[in-house]
User: Which sequence fits this backbone?
């Protein structure tokens, strides 16, 4: 297509006339007809094939004879880059994503000719269900406010006419003919625009200072040296709407009295350079650049200078040096560029985004712009949303929009059902914001308070698969490579920080390294020459501030929970398991049908193989790398098959030790924590005594978890196995009733492990809570599971969203309740109960009502008859990173008729049972305070672990706590370590690293039919047959192959 | 004037001053490393960090301008800690093996570490990568020792206008060196050694020839003579604890004798010889121009400074015909020693070893120029810098300070005061004028105490004019001629002067160029650290030396007269031409 020759505009009236003409020439759609197709020609869509799509669309249109009627426009970036190539069709902007050339014919035939939209190409909303047909209906766009991006995605950036039709250069016309330079600066002051390059310096003030500097010549510069990894808003503006930058610069030049400008673009942005060059040429042709613009005495021209991609050239003095042809390096300020800049002349330097705002401000007025944003920062800011969110791309929101809204409402939340862990904001100079601060307004000062910066607007969202130490290492490596090497703190200091971080990531760190990093970081921040060095330590300092525990884990436990740091991770599943079970080992052995060996390997680290095969939360599967190929290995399914092959109990290695056997150790509580502790003590030759308050051992495993999930015999078998090892188990022996802690100590117990769990339910404090028929879940479950019977109503409501709530609901259904409704105040996504349990419960007929809150219980004759419910909505994010439920003020109360209410809103320590004889330190939340690594309490002989310390947690966590305490007790009593199982053992499974992964798909465990579940407690899940199990086991990719990680801290060696 | 507070002391300072200058004004020392006098502060090393009230970060005193009401703490806990950390960082990067380092005695980094009480380097890790560049005869660079303070960059680029050294690479991989990380030989380095003189550590040093000199002295078959340049006597004492500007001519002669040199001579002798040759050459060129009306290259430039010769060959080859064809005094000495002197003592040239002691590293290069073998063998065998000589004296266990004052040997050790002032900027010009004026007019140069004050001192380019009257008949063509001369020192100044001449033509007849700021007294081989204060003291010591002599004009030197009578014939005669003159060729950059 030949570019039209653009007319020279010698006065403002001619611009207005041209604008009018262009608007009238625009195709107007008749009823039900399509007149325009927009194809995104942003960098991302181009790389995914937008050009081919455009060609195919043109051919299809021509074939259908629609070439004349339908305009095909190549626009700049539309924003949602992850779903490109993107095509918008028609006046309602039907949004087609991931369009391929072969879709063109269908779009033209069906949509344009036939008026039927092509549903399969439409973007789905965040839930992935409803197609959201039009751009304006998409959450991604709906919640944005586009000022900077006002033209991006709407115009063909290579046709100045498109810009002019959308008010391009109208602001310049107004400024040149109606305003004095001082008035322009005043308007900018009113707008409150702050520099969008990162530091947020008031734009008007910069202009004012430059205009006041005494000089004959002044310059305006545009910083388009966007270098933050993952940030590309400036590139998109230059590619999608270059004229807004040219116009903004021309206005700035008029305001400060400059006649020459330069745009400093990195050479890595060839498309931006090309489109900007075209735009400059067209602007010159139209007389919008050059001498006597609009016939006024004012002249301004613009040139492009290309930089070769040095990150530091984003620093203004370095950028200026680079334009001058010198090495791009910062120099001390003052003098500031506004006083002494390019070639020693006063210079205004703003970035692309800042300039793109300027025409809109001058056209709509500073007050309009000022009405958006926060008290201190006005207007909008573009963010490059990247990382673990569903919708990545460019988003523009008012300054001060909470981070959580961008992540969830625009970004669509975290991909793959992961959880938000942190957002890295501001690029390599920025910091990481943890989930406790999802409400932080995206604004200069609040971000700085949390150790991040606004920067140029890079926003990388991270889920729990991200290791924060590794993130810090990555960014510091980047800045240390990009440091100009001029000043010592930045050149040497960042290198030293990197070396320390590399050490930590390799498991060779020491605790003092954390303080060393902080000290170094603060030194570099305060001592460096330029902004690069002064912010370089931010990613490290902010991750230490918000994720110090991860650093400590890397150093102390040589453990990378995210499974990222290669030298600390044998396999990600193994790292993810709290107990450290050799997952690839036992899975592979099952694949070779070596079941007994597999089980023994499992029990090296975890006595409760059979229990965990049924109730484990399987964090291992969440980290399974097979997921990147298809789906995770069904590790629990393999385990289930494995434990079912056990005929005679597989007793693990025990190292008899007469000296240890003579020592007296007591364990209080026969739950998973206490029994595991006893198990590992016994394997080291001790003969501990375990005291259990209830009649049956197992703690929560037996009291709370129903038999249809964990058959009683399975638990009993593993308890017996533990007893076989020399553990003395005494039931019906309750702390506080039958003995005291000091009493045990006085009797000669050298160490006591307190693992009493969190057996009490937390009552709901609403009117009527004391009525008959109101019970709490722990009590309800325990009564049925231990005593064998519990009263159950006909219409049962369970209040709460955790596992106890679901267990109580499913138990109630089995015991004959006609209806069971679970009431939860947030949404299903936020429920802490395991997703598969919720699914099973719903299948069994449990009803789920979310976003409701019980205000009061109706009581008649002392019995509960109904629950007054209030509707809730999700509000701000709380410290757990979930949205806090809030009352819907206008909602009318609703009454749910019930005859039984089971409250499951939390668990607590039975503080009374602890007895008053020892002063036990407690945490703020009331749990027993103990060293998370050793279980040590404030008393030298007393240890604590499990739910009593952590609050309600998983079985695996409890087992891990028991193991850790056993090791700590042994170390304390003997002064040496006997924990032989902690060393590296080769499972001895074979593996061919050259073979392709097997192609079998993941399979779920079978469940018994719904009819069979009614009125009984038969185990719901059924194991696979051998063939399936072996095939499933072979799906393991053996990430551990050839890797021998550095030894676990505390290993016997 | 601005009112500021430094360490709770309220003071008034000039607007436009830096915090560093303000602190110095009240006697507060803030340590510096990258900062150089008269050069724009670059704020790179951060050793001068101070706390400024209200500032977000610590400020580099060298580059922070004062402002009204400023409150500065130069040694607050924060400032001291940061400065110490900076030095710790440098020590962790710097691959310094102090005991074996050329600079272990006067290393500025080591001194800073001591001042700041750095007890140990708290960081281990990657160090700067070693690359030893010993490609030139003059200098050795070691990147592993370089702390990237960029003083050499600033001196080479701004003071000398050469720009052979600059920063390359990024981050920790940044290196300072010639373009494309080549060696010095591969670029247009003039080997002046100003970089070596300014380097705070041992990253750039002269290439030593001490072992070769010892070997020659210890060889009984060789006759080893030494010549010392005029600038040495005003600086060598600094290596032995004397204040800058102390003249140690007599002790130096004694020390050289005790080192075992067979003849202790003086480059001053050939400086006088140079004046006769060069003066005659100038008059000859003027005659050609004024009387014979022949095309002749004017202005004439001096040729004593080998860095300048290199500079002209690299950057201004069009001016090569203008440079006097006289060899430098060092090379004239070598040629005379291995011919005239050799005959006198009855030795073959190859049995004589000529060692020079020079304030200069480029002299090492000059001695090795292929054409410098007029005697049939290498005219000058080894060149020591002032610093190297001091080291030899120390190594030999000579207690320099208690040495008696001794005289140089005859015949090559006798010289005039005019020869002494060769060491100073403007000195060669002044010496030439003293002789030329007297030759032309028969009268003494009409200047107070024979000093042409207009061309003395540290001004960048200086000029003077002298109207010649009362000429002898054979010089009558100069009657009434206003002789215009210019003096430039520091190649940066020289570059500006030459560019100006290139563009506008030259009003001058004769131009003296010295490579180093201040002349040879500020040479690249002189004791460290040379700043303007030290330069002025050395300059004045040299003038004192001149004034202390009875014989103050080169043509009065009796041994030089004898040399002409017995051996050379007349200035610019055939023998002179062969032994004492040379020619130049442009070099590719």
Assistant:
């Amino acid at each position: 297509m030949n570019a039209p020759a653009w007319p020279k505009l010698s006065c403002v009236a001619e611009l207005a006339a041209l604008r009018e003409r262009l608007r009238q020439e625009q195709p107007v759609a008749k009823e039900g007809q399509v007149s325009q197709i927009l194809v995104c020609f942003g960098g991302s869509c181009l790389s995914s094939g937008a050009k081919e799509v455009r060609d195919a669309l043109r051919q299809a249109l021509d074939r259908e004879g629609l070439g004349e009627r339908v305009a095909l426009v190549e626009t700049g970036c539309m924003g949602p880059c992850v779903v490109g190539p993107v095509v918008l069709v028609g006046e309602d902007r039907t949004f087609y994503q991931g369009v391929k050339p072969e879709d063109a014919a269908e779009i033209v035939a069906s949509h344009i000719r036939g008026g039927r939209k092509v549903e399969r190409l439409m973007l789905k909303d965040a839930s992935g269900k409803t197609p959201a047909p039009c751009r304006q209906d998409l959450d991604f766009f709906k919640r944005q406010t586009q000022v900077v991006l006002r033209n991006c995605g709407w115009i063909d950036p290579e046709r100045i006419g498109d810009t002019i039709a959308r008010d391009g250069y109208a602001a310049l016309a107004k400024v040149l003919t109606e305003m004095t330079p001082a008035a322009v600066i005043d308007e900018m002051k009113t707008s409150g625009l702050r520099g969008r390059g990162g530091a947020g310096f008031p734009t008007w003030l910069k202009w004012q200072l430059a205009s006041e500097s005494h000089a004959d010549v002044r310059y305006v510069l545009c910083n388009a040296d966007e270098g933050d990894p993952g940030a590309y808003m400036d590139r998109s503006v230059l590619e999608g709407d270059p004229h807004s930058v040219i116009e903004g610069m021309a206005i700035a030049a008029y305001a400060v009295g400059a006649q020459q400008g330069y745009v400093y673009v990195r050479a890595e942005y060839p498309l931006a350079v090309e489109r900007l060059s075209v735009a400059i040429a067209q602007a010159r042709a139209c007389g919008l650049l050059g001498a006597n613009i609009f016939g006024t005495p004012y002249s301004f021209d613009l040139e492009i200078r290309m930089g070769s991609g040095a990150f530091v050239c984003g620093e203004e003095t370095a950028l200026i040096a680079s334009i001058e042809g010198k090495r791009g390096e910062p120099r001390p300020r003052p003098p500031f560029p506004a006083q002494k800049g390019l070639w020693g002349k006063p210079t205004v330097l703003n970035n692309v985004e800042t300039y793109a705002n300027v025409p809109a401000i001058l056209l709509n007025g500073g007050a309009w712009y000022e009405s958006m944003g926060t008290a201190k920062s006005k207007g909008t800011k573009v963010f490059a949303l990247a990382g673990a969110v569903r919708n990545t791309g460019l988003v523009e929101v008012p300054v001060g929009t909470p981070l959580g809204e961008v992540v969830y409402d625009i970004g669509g939340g975290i991909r793959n059902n992961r959880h938000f862990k942190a957002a890295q904001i501001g690029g390599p100079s920025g910091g990481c914001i943890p989930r406790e601060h999802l409400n932080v307004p995206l604004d200069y000062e609040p971000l700085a308070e949390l150790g991040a910066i606004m920067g140029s607007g890079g926003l990388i969202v991270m889920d729990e698969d991200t290791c924060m130490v590794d993130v810090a290492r990555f960014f510091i490596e980047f800045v240390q490579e990009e440091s100009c090497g001029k000043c010592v703190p930045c050149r040497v200091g960042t290198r030293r920080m990197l070396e320390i971080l590399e050490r930590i990531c390799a498991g060779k760190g020491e605790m003092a390294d954390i303080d060393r990093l902080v000290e170094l970081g603060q030194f570099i921040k305060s001592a460096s020459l330029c902004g690069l060095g002064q912010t370089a330590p931010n990613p490290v300092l902010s991750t230490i501030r918000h994720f110090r525990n991860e650093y400590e884990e890397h150093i102390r436990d040589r453990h990378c929970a995210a499974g990222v740091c290669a030298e600390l991770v044998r396999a990600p599943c193994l790292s993810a398991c709290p107990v450290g079970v050799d997952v690839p080992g036992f899975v592979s052995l099952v694949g070779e049908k070596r079941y007994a060996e597999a089980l023994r390997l499992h029990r090296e680290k975890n006595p409760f193989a059979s229990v965990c095969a049924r109730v484990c939360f399987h964090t291992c599967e969440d980290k399974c790398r097979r997921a990147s190929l298809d789906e995770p290995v069904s590790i629990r399914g393999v385990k289930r098959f494995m434990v079912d092959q056990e005929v005679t109990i597989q007793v693990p290695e025990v190292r008899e030790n007469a000296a240890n056997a003579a020592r007296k150790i007591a364990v209080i509580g026969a739950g998973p924590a206490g029994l595991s502790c006893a198990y590992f003590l016994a394997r080291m030759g001790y003969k501990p005594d375990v005291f259990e308050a209830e009649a049956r051992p197992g703690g929560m495993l037996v009291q709370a978890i129903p038999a249809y999930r964990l058959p009683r015999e399975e638990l009993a078998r593993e308890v017996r196995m533990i007893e076989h090892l020399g553990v003395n188990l005494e039931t019906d022996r309750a702390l506080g009733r039958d003995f005291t802690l000091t009493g045990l100590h006085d009797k000669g117990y050298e160490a006591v492990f307190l693992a009493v769990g969190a057996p009490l339910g937390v009552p709901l404090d609403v009117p009527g809570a004391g009525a008959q028929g109101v019970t709490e879940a722990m009590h309800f479950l325990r009564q049925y599971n231990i005593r064998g019977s519990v009263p159950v109503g006909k219409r049962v409501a369970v209040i709460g969203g955790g596992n106890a709530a679901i267990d109580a609901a499913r138990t109630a259904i089995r015991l004959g309740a006609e209806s069971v409704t679970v009431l939860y105040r947030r949404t299903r996504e936020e429920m802490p109960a395991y997703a598969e349990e919720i699914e099973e419960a719903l299948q069994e007929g449990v009803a789920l009502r979310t976003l409701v809150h019980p205000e009061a219980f109706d009581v008649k004759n002392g019995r509960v008859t109904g629950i007054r419910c209030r509707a809730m909505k999700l509000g701000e994010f709380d410290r757990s990173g979930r949205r806090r439920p809030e009352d819907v003020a206008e909602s009318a109360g609703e009454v749910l008729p019930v005859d039984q209410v089971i409250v499951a809103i939390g668990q607590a320590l039975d503080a009374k049972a602890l007895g008053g004889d020892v002063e036990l330190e407690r945490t703020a939340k009331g749990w027993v305070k103990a060293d998370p690594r050793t279980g040590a309490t404030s008393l030298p002989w007393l240890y604590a672990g499990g739910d009593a310390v952590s609050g309600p947690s998983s079985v695996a966590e409890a087992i891990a706590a028991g193991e850790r305490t056993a090791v700590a007790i042994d170390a304390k009593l003997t002064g040496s370590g006997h924990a032989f199982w902690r060393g590296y053992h080769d499972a001895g499974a074979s593996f061919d690293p050259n073979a392709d992964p097997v192609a079998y798909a993941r399979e779920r465990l079978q469940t018994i039919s719904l009819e069979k579940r009614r009125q009984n407690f038969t185990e719901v899940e059924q194991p696979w047959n051998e063939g399936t199990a072996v095939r499933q086991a072979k799906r393991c990719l053996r990430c551990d192959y050839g890797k021998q990680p550095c030894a676990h801290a505390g290993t016997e060696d | 004037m601005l009112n500021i507070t430094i360490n709770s002391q309220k003071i008034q300072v000039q607007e436009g001053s830096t915090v560093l200058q303000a602190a110095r004004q009240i006697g507060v020392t803030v340590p510096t490393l990258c900062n150089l006098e008269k050069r724009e502060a670059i704020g790179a090393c951060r050793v001068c960090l101070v706390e400024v009230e209200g500032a977000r970060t610590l400020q580099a005193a060298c580059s922070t301008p004062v402002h009204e009401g400023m409150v500065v703490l130069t040694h607050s806990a924060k400032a001291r800690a940061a400065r110490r950390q900076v030095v710790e960082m440098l020590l962790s990067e710097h691959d310094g093996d102090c005991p074996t380092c050329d600079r272990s005695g006067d290393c500025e980094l080591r001194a800073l570490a001591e001042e700041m009480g750095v007890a140990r380097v708290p960081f281990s890790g990657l160090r700067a990568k070693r690359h030893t560049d010993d490609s030139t005869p003059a200098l050795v660079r070691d990147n592993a020792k370089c702390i990237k303070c960029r003083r050499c960059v600033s001196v080479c680029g701004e003071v000398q206008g050469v720009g052979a050294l600059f920063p390359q690479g990024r981050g920790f991989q940044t290196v300072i060196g010639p373009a494309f990380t080549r060696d010095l030989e591969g670029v247009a380095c003039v080997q002046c050694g100003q970089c070596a003189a300014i380097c705070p550590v041992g990253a750039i040093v002269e290439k030593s020839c001490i072992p070769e000199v010892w070997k020659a002295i210890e060889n009984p078959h060789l006759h080893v003579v030494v010549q010392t340049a005029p600038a040495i006597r005003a600086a060598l004492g600094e290596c032995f604890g004397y204040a800058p500007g102390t003249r140690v001519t007599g002790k130096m002669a004694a020390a050289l004798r005790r080192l075992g040199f067979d003849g202790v001579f003086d480059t001053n002798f050939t400086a006088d010889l140079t004046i006769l040759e060069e003066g005659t050459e100038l008059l000859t060129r003027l005659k050609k121009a004024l009387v014979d009306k022949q095309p002749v290259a004017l202005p004439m430039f001096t040729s004593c400074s080998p860095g300048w010769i290199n500079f002209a060959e690299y950057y201004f080859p069009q001016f090569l015909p203008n440079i006097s064809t006289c060899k430098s005094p060092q090379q004239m000495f070598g040629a005379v020693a291995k011919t005239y002197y050799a005959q006198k003592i009855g030795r073959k040239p190859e049995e004589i070893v000529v060692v020079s002691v020079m304030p200069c590293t480029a002299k090492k290069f000059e001695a090795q120029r292929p054409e410098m073998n007029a005697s049939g063998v290498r005219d000058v065998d080894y060149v020591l810098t002032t610093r190297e000589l001091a080291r030899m004296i120390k190594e030999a266990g000579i207690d320099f300070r208690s040495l008696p004052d001794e005289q140089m040997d005859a015949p090559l050790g006798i010289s005039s005061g005019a020869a002494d002032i060769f060491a100073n900027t403007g000195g060669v010009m002044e010496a030439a004028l003293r002789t030329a004026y007297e030759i032309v007019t028969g009268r003494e140069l009409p200047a107070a105490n024979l000093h042409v004050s207009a061309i003395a001192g540290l001004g960048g380019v200086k000029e003077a004019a002298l109207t010649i009257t009362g000429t002898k008949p054979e010089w009558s063509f100069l009657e009434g001629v206003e002789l215009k001369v210019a003096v430039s020192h520091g190649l940066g100044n020289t570059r500006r002067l030459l560019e100006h001449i290139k563009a506008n033509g030259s009003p001058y007849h004769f131009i003296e160029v010295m490579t180093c700021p201040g002349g040879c007294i500020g040479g690249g081989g002189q004791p460290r650290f040379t700043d303007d204060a030290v330069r002025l003291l050395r300059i004045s010591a040299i003038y004192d030396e001149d004034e202390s002599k009875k014989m103050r004009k080169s043509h009065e030197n009796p041994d030089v007269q004898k040399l002409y009578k017995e051996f050379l014939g007349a200035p610019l005669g055939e023998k002179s031409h062969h032994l004492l003159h040379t020619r130049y060729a442009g070099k590719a950059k």
Q: What stands out?
A: The interface with chain A takes residues 41-47, 49, 57-58, 60, 63-65, 78, 81-82, 85-86, 89-90, 92-93, 122-123, 125-126, 147-148, 150, 166-167, 169-174 of chain B (CB under 8 Å).
